[in-house]
Automatic annotation (TrEMBL):
It comes from the Eukaryota. This is Uncharacterized protein. Residues 1-18 form the signal peptide. Keywords: Membrane, Signal, Transmembrane, Transmembrane helix. The chain crosses the membrane at residues 56-75. It comes from Hibiscus sabdariffa.
Length: 77
């Protein structure tokens, strides 16, 4: 659901006006590290944990989150 925030930021950031500014790298780095953890590392940890509850959630919530993540990535990048 939140993967667009990671990959869209990585795709859009090099085309931004502040790409060559070192301060922009300093500011975007924690953002990308946090979303890398949320979209890659945390789900892998959950899938390896056999004791974790597997509660489902609705598709509408996943779609809303996906749409928000697209908007968020566009605004951040």
């Amino acid at each position: 659901m939140e993967s667009p925030t990671l990959w869209l930021t990585l795709l859009l950031f090099p085309f931004g006006q502040q790409f060559s500014n070192p301060k922009s790298f300093l500011l975007i780095s924690p953002y990308l590290i946090q979303y890398f953890n949320r979209t890659v590392l945390y789900p892998l940890r959950l899938s390896r944990n056999k004791n974790a509850p597997s509660n489902g959630f609705s598709v509408s919530i996943a779609l809303i989150t996906f749409g928000f993540s697209l908007l968020n990535a566009y605004l951040q990048a």
